[in-house]
């Protein structure tokens, strides 16, 4: 029994840290890497969309916008899993759902469907907060 | 005044690092906090996350993709739409911070009242008998010590 609990404890720590790390990497890759690339490549100020990761995306603007939301959601949710505020499986599912809703919201925002985008975003926030 | 893009870039990176450091310490601290205080910290953290998102979107209004500071390539339609998002995020963020702070305050107040009630109910027990004059002397509940009012003998509480 004690061993089982210890395994669960370690799992929560590991999974939580992994989710947190993915969130941090997401923000670094999608927000700050293009910036660094811009200065390293000395490209013109408005030429950020030619950064490989963004250029490969079907909708660069949405990719750009979603990154910080997804990163923050994953980092905070990872922390909750780490601190055992939520069960590992529940935490992972709610994180995935919050990220999916956020990405959908951002895509709709890019296509100027503001009402539906806002509804999905509020749903994502509720899922993020609970 | 001239715009210096690296200044905003470096400050933005710094801001993101500070945010993730805050989340890191909150994560570490969350395990050792009390139940209700943990909840309060969680509300506050959600608020801070929303405020970070709002800050990040504000950056989008002034530089890529709206360029409000550069009229020659500005996209004011997108800037207006993003301004609404920023306002919603700011309001939600401050609401969450307020709720977290209120919860933390109420929890502290509740625990303080419980402690005061405990002290009040156990006050009668915090008396010690002076060995010299054989009279009961009140013990200070905070220091755990008392001084006999006749012979000035210092006595320690038997419970402490």
Account of the 3D structure:
The complex is a heterodimer of chains A (130) and B (160). Chain A contains five helices and no strands. Chain A has helices at 2-41, 52-56, 60-82, 88-110, 114-129. In chain B, helix 1 runs antiparallel to helix 2 and helix 2 (35-62) runs antiparallel to helix 3 (76-122). The termini of chain B are far apart. Chain B has helices spanning 5-30, 35-62, 76-122, and strands at 127-129, 136-138, 145-147, 154-156. With 160 residues, chain B is mainly alpha-helical. Chain B folds into two domains: 5-122; 126-156, no CATH class. Chain B is rod-shaped and about 95 Å long. Chains A and B meet through helix 1, helix 3 and helix 5 of A and helix 1, helix 2 and helix 3 of B.
Give, in order, the helices and strands of chain B.
Answer: HHHEEEE
State the separation between the terminal residues of chain B, measured CA to CA: 67 Å
**Helical residue percent band of chain A:** over 70%
Which parts of chain A are unreliable, with pLDDT below 50 for 5 consecutive residues or more? none
Average pLDDT figure of chain B = 82
Q: Count every helix of chain B, treating DSSP H or I runs of 4 or more residues as helices.
A: 3
> Helical residue percent of chain B?
55-70%
Total count of strands of chain B: 4
Quaternary structure type: heterodimer
Query: How many alpha or pi helices of chain A?
Result: 5
Overall mean confidence score, pLDDT of chain A:
77
How big is the Rg of chain A?
17 Å
Structural class of chain B: mainly alpha
Question: Based on helices, strands and strand pairing, what is the structural class of chain A?
Answer: mainly alpha
Quote the distance from N terminus to C terminus of chain A.
Answer: 30 Å
Runs of chain B in which pLDDT lies below 50 for 5 or more consecutive residues are: none
Relative strand content of chain A: under 5%
Total beta strand runs of chain A: 0
């Amino acid at each position: 029994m004690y061993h089982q609990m210890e395994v669960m404890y370690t799992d929560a720590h590991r999974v939580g840290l992994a989710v947190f790390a993915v969130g941090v990497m997401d923000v670094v890759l999608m927000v700050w890497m293009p910036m660094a690339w811009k200065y390293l490549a000395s490209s013109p100020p408005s030429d950020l969309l030619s950064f490989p990761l963004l250029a490969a995306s079907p909708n660069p603007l949405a990719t750009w916008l979603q990154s910080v939301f997804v990163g923050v959601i994953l980092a905070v949710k990872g922390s909750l899993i780490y601190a055992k505020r939520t069960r590992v499986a529940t935490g992972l599912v709610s994180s995935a759902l919050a990220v999916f809703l956020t990405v959908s919201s951002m895509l709709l925002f890019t296509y100027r469907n503001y009402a539906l985008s806002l509804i999905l975003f509020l749903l994502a926030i509720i899922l993020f907060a609970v | 005044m001239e715009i210096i893009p690296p200044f905003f870039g470096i400050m933005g990176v710094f801001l993101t690092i500070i945010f993730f450091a805050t989340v890191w310490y909150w994560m570490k601290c969350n395990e050792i906090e009390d139940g209700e205080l943990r909840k309060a910290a969680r509300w506050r953290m959600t608020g801070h996350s929303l405020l970070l998102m709002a800050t990040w979107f504000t950056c989008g209004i002034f530089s890529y993709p709206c360029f409000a500071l550069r009229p020659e390539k500005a996209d004011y339609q997108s800037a207006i739409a993003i301004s609404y998002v920023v306002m919603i995020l700011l309001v939600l963020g401050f609401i969450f911070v307020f709720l977290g702070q209120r919860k933390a305050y109420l929890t502290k107040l509740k625990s303080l009242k419980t402690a005061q009630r405990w002290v009040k109910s156990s006050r009668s027990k915090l008396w010690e008998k002076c060995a010299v004059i054989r009279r009961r002397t009140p013990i200070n509940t905070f220091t755990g010590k008392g001084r006999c009012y006749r012979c000035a003998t210092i006595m320690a509480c038997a419970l402490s």
